[in-house]
Amino acid sequence: MSYLLTATCAVPAAGAVLTAALPAGSSEARRRASKGVALAVSAATLALTVVVAASLDTGGARYQLTESHTWIRSFGIDFSLGADGIGAVLALLTAVLVPIVMLASWHDADPVQGPDGTFENVRRTQGFFALVLAVEAMVLVSFLATDIFVFYVFFEAMLIPMYFLIGGFGDRAGGPDSAAQRSYAAVKFLLYNLLGGLVMLAAVIGLYVIAQDQGLATFDLPTLTGAIADGRLVIDPTAEKMLFLGFFFAFAVKAPLWPLHTWLPNAMGESTAGTAVLITAVVDKVGTFAMLRFCLGLFPDASRTFGPYILVLSLIGIVYGALLAVGQKDIKRLVAYASISHFGFIIMGIFAFTSQGQSGATLYMVNHGISTAAWMLVAGFLISRRGSRLIADFGGVQKVAPVLAGTFLIGGLATLSLPGLAPFVSEFLVLVGTFARYPAVGVIATFGIVLAALYALLLYQRTMTGPVKAGVEGMADLRVREVLVVAPLVALTLFLGVYPKPLTDLVNPAVNATLSQVHQTDPAPAHPVAATTGGEHE
Questions:
Q1: Residue 288 to residues 86, 189, 347, 452, 532: CA-CA distances in angstroms?
Q2: What would you measure as the largest C-alpha separation in the chain, in angstroms?
Q3: CA–CA separation, 466 vs 538, rounded Å?
Q4: For residue 415, which of 123, 212, 380, 439 sits 20 to 30 Å off, Cα-Cα?
């Protein structure tokens, strides 16, 4: 048995414990040591996820590098891990973003020096970086778990470190009421997601009871989906619909899907830029990933039944999120509402039930993570320099900080899915796949592209062009560390925009397996091309 997946998840977990246990102190040397350990651990995790992705055989079994370790024998619960193409690319996205987030947040958690010259909260630095590693470990388990109960435990457990990251390490540009606003945002994030998790727990128990009554007392996902496919596990249609809704509700809250999205603008607005990236580019992807792996695999008939209704919700989310982004005055909240719109595209691609739609949705999860990370982190650099999140407080930045302005423009252009940049490929596939089965939905969804161009370009115009505003004239350009943060994100955006094949080769086999589970094939072309020969007019 290979232990590669266990090592991939265990390294950041052990790193979190080690970072938290390092000696505390106000000296720069001690802070640098804790940051260095955390960064080294995240780099080691990235190396392991690259090995995982490279080890997958695209023509092999659905789940590879599988491991199973007995956990709670009496209930058939095993700590089981397995990688497919979808889980592997999202694990790789997580491992890429975490060290970048750490570099971007290098000074965000430094202790504050009080009026008497002493430092307060000297453990802040270790706490922040340990929490980031804890989130990474839990997200990786969620992407790789093949036991439903194990997935549920870590799906819920990741809320705890995220709660402390939002509430304890908030944005210092939030104004005089920032502490109260951070607390509100953290509690709202926790309550919304805990509610979704409790509903899912009831559904998990219900599924286990039904399976146990038919001689399958297990939480093993491949066993259950295989039994459903060959008729050994039969779920009453009404019960299947209820179980589907229990799982889907939890995933829709985390995704977030309209109208369960309202926690996201608060959480992202009050967090540091690095934490905001963890929320929308890493943690939220667990929700959309789980829709593909669990909702469609375990409840194929209910997925087809509710698919059209979910498409309507995703379509509303696309337009609603984009419209609210256009009207935002706060840079971070603008990015949050833009993400709500993008998640609508991802969920639309999943429930279009076409290979193009689901491949595009998976690529969208990756590409949205990369492009939004670039946009948000540069926005964070911008906000920290000015000490304000309000768009009206900026203007003429490109005259005093051209590199910062240029990278901010690339992030905005990627967000609006400019051809040649990574999100364009995924958005195009989602729209093509949706149009093939639901033409009206595909047509309406394209309106979201127009709105994306509007909010992204208006934000750039208002902050970067025009006369230099007061408070901006002395703004420094990107420093070396900040360039190191942005450069890999820009490079990945350009590379995957012109050559997405490495990801599609990994993703497509898992997508085809998912479609077969819900008994769907791609629709036949409405106007098939007739075979012709050179002598047809003779």
A1: 11, 17, 7, 21, 44
A2: 98
A3: 67
A4: 439
Q: Considering only CA atoms, which of 158, 159, 185 is closest in space to residue 171?
A: 185
| Bond before 12 cis per omega within 30 degrees | no
Residue with tokens 């698919």: 307
The whole-angstrom separation of Cα 239 and Cα 243 is 6
The structure's pTM equals: 0.90
Quick one: which H or E segment has residue 79? strand 77-83
Rounded Cα distance, 248 and 255, in Å = 10
Q: What angle do CA 62, 67, 69 make, to 5 degrees?
A: 140
Write down the residue that tokens 């195009």 correspond to.
428
- Rounded to 5 degrees, what are φ and ψ at 113? -85, 125
Collapsing DSSP states into helix, strand and coil, what is residue 195? helix
SS3 349: helix
Q: Which residue has the tokens 């080294």?
A: 40
The C-alpha torsion from 451 through 454 and 456 to 462, rounded to 10°, is -150
Per the listing, tokens 């115009």 go with: 461
- Reported as type and span, the H/E element at residue 80 is strand 77-83
- Residue 530 has what DSSP assignment? P
Instruction: Map tokens 């420094």 to a residue.
Output: 476
Q: What are the residue ranges in the chain where pLDDT is below 70?
A: 1, 24-27, 111-123, 171-177, 525-538
